[in-house]
């Protein structure tokens, strides 16, 4: 990679000028490349696939500061309102809690929190254990199984569907729309999926309004704060965000954690012998190889200096939790897995947009590892072994595409 200078900072690009974060080496192991970018400074300009440049924040302290900086906006619609766009995304998908700035954000978030409390999540724990057990039973019938398709992906979908009260027969369609929204499919497909998902959720909310249940969606419909409540479009967009934000991320946390476990016989044995270590293991898996590598995005509403870099109004800033979590200025031996580390990873973000589903994701992952470690005497990598894992080819997220295993009964 050469490093021509612009605004006094390096523009990272490889010889062909292509996106350095979309190479086969990056998909296999993004951390050496992210460390190389960070070695040039904690905030660097990088070239993206579409030929534009964005600021990549790779230092832990700078990433944490950026995530809580009010000059960096999440409100793309307001910010880019004057730019031509040929997209026809449903507002429910483009105008979510995650794309709203204070003070509107605080109001929406407070209402959402009333139905999404840690206590509500704790009540789900027995049901999550049943769902995980059923998936493990189905895997146990096969000589060799894929943990991604057979466990890591379906578990979070089943959980969020139960949470929202999405009936079983509708779940495959909901998963397809959500995948299409995430997979950076062709713009037409993404637009169509956004309308299909928001149309579906609008009907589901109407049903739930007529006949409330004890699901989170009914709770959100009833949620009140000082007489305030969520409007119909706000409800639809919150439900859409819960569907989309929670499942691929959690699936990748389970998948990446299992890759680490399959590579480390001693760690598997240690966790199996002492399940009380699982919460610490989940935290370390989130830090060491979390689901979001170089998300998330913000837009500078005014010029600012971050980590020595001068960011202009209108510039896009991309915070890289995957890089910040391995910053040697924050974590000793950041590339190794050590349970019980202090330091605080940024995998769930930080500041006003800190992940609303963090408690749920933690419970799901803990139960997933508990079930996978205790259902059999052992679980071993099949085929070419965990060092030859086939990773998903996405820049923003990290997770195995397949994880073939065999079971020792
Ligand atoms: C926000 C990560 C699971 C719902 C976020 C953010 C991150 C994140 C980094 C902040 C984005 C930013 O600041 O720009 C993750 C990871 C997960 C996970 C790594 C799994 C391991 C979930 C689940 C749900 C969820 C299970 C819900 C069911 C949300 C929502 C927001 C959010 C609603 C927006 C919060 C706001 O804007 O105030 N998540 N998430 N996430 N996440 Fe998660």
Stretches where pLDDT is under 50 for at least 5 consecutive residues are: 1-17
Outline: globular
What summary fits the major beta sheet?
7 strands, mixed
- Using the coordinates above, name the CATH class: Mainly Alpha
- Total domain count: 1
Ligands bound to this protein structure: protoporphyrin IX containing FE
Please give the radius of gyration in angstroms: 21 Å
| Helix content estimate | 40-55%
Q: In which order are the strands of the major sheet placed? A: 1-2-3-4-12-9-5
Put simply, the count of helices is 17
Query: Structural class, judged by helices and strands?
Result: alpha+beta
- Identify the CATH homologous superfamily: Cytochrome P450
Mean pLDDT reading: 89
Architecture, according to CATH? Answer: Orthogonal Bundle
CATH topology: Cytochrome p450
Percentage beta strand: 5-15%
Distance between the termini: 49 Å
Region (Disordered): 1-23
Protein name: Cytochrome P450
Keywords: Heme, Iron, Metal-binding, Monooxygenase, Oxidoreductase
Pfam family, one: p450
Describe this structure in words.
With 409 residues, this protein is an alpha+beta fold. It has one domain (5-383, 393-408): Cytochrome P450 (Cytochrome p450, Orthogonal Bundle), CATH 1.10.630.10. The protein has 17 helices and 16 strands. The chain has helices at residues 24-28, 30-39, 60-67, 76-79, 91-94, 104-115, 118-140, 147-152, 154-164, 171-182, 187-210, 216-222, 232-262, 265-273, 278-289, 321-324, 358-374; strands at 5-6, 9-12, 43-47, 53-57, 72-73, 144-146, 224-225, 228-229, 297-300, 304-306, 309-311, 316-319, 378-381, 390-391, 400-402, 404-408. The strands form five sheets. Strands 1-2-3-4-12-9-5 form a seven-stranded mixed sheet. Strands 6-16-13 form a three-stranded antiparallel sheet. Strands 7-8 form a two-stranded antiparallel ribbon. A hairpin with an 8-residue loop joins strand 14 and strand 15. Helix 13 crosses helix 15. The longest helix has 31 residues, at 232-262. Protoporphyrin IX containing FE binds at residues 67, 97-98, 109, 160, 241-242, 245-246, 249-250, 253, 290-292, 296, 347-349, 353, 355-357, 360-361. The site of protoporphyrin IX containing FE has 25 residues, from helix 13 and helix 17.
């Amino acid at each position: 990679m050469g490093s021509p200078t612009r605004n006094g900072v390096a523009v990272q690009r490889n010889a062909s000028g292509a996106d350095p974060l979309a190479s086969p080496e990056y998909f296999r192991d993004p951390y050496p490349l992210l460390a190389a970018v960070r070695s040039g400074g904690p905030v660097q300009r990088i070239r993206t696939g579409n030929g534009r440049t964005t600021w990549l924040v790779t230092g832990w302290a700078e990433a944490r500061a950026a995530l809580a900086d009010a000059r960096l906006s999440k409100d793309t619609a307001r910010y880019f309102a004057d730019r031509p766009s040929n997209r026809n995304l449903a507002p429910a998908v483009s105008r979510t809690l995650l794309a709203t700035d204070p003070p509107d954000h605080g109001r929406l978030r407070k209402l959402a929190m009333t139905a999404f409390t840690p206590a509500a999540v704790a009540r789900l724990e027995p049901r999550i254990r049943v769902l995980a057990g059923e998936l493990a039973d189905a895997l146990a019938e096969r000589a060799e199984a894929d943990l991604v398709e057979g466990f890591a992906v379906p578990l979070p979908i089943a959980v969020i569907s139960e949470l929202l009260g999405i009936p079983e027969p509708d779940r495959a369609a909901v998963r397809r729309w959500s995948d299409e929204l995430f997979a950076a499919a062709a713009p037409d497909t993404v637009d169509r999926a956004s309308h299909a998902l928001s149309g579906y959720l609008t009907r589901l909310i109407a049903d739930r309004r007529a006949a409330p249940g004890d699901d989170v969606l009914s709770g959100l419909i009833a949620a009140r704060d000082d007489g305030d409540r969520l409007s119909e479009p706000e409800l639809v967009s919150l439900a859409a965000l819960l569907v989309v934000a929670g499942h691929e991320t959690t699936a990748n946390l389970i998948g990446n954690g299992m890759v680490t476990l399959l590579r480390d016989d001693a760690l598997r044995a240690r966790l199996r012998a002492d399940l009380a270590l699982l919460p610490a293991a989940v935290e370390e898996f989130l830090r060491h190889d979390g689901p979001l590598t170089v998300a998330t995005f913000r837009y500078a509403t005014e010029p600012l200096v971050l980590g020595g870099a001068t960011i202009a109004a209108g510039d896009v800033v991309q915070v890289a939790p995957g890089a910040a979590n391995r910053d040697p200025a924050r974590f000793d031996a950041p590339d190794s897995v050590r349970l019980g580390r202090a330091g605080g990873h940024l995998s769930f973000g930080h500041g006003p947009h800190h992940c609303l589903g963090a408690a749920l994701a933690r419970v799901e992952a803990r139960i997933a590892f508990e079930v996978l470690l205790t259902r059999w005497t052992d679980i071993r990598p099949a085929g070419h072994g965990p060092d030859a894992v086939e990773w998903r080819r996405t820049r923003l997220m990290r997770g195995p595409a397949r994880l073939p295993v065999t079971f020792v009964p």
